[in-house]
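Q: Give me a backbone?
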Amino acid sequence: MYPPELVAPMKEDLTQVGFSELQTTEDVDQALSKEDGTTLVVVNSVCGCAAGAARPGIKLSLEGTKKPDNLTTVFAGVDREATDRARQYFLPYPPSSPAIGLFKDGKLVHFIERHHIEGRPAEMIAENLKMAYDEYC
C-alpha cells in the first residue's frame, strides 16, 4: 500500500479533469453496471509509464469532440479491492497497471494494457482513445 501523500498528486492528475475515484467494490459495480452510455475506467499507477504516457495521453484524448459520458479511475496498490473488482470487468485481459477500459452499455468495448502504453508517447495513446471514442461514444 502506498502512502496517501505519495499518490495524492497522481490521483489529482485525473480527478482535476473530471475523473471520479472508485474506491470500493460497490463504487465499481455501480459505475460499470450502467446499461446505457459510455464509461472510461483508468487503472492509475505510480509507475513511470502512467506518469509519462498514460495520464497525459488520457487527458489529451478528452480534448476531442467525442468523449465518454463517465470518467472513472481506480488506483492500483491503493484502492486494492476496487482495482481487483474493476479487473474482473476487464476479463479476459490479465491484470495490468496502468490500463484503460472503455465500456458501452455495460460491456467492455476497448482496452489498453500496460504493454500498449510502455514506450509509446502520450499522443499515440490519445489517438488510440479518440478512435475508440469516435466509434463508441
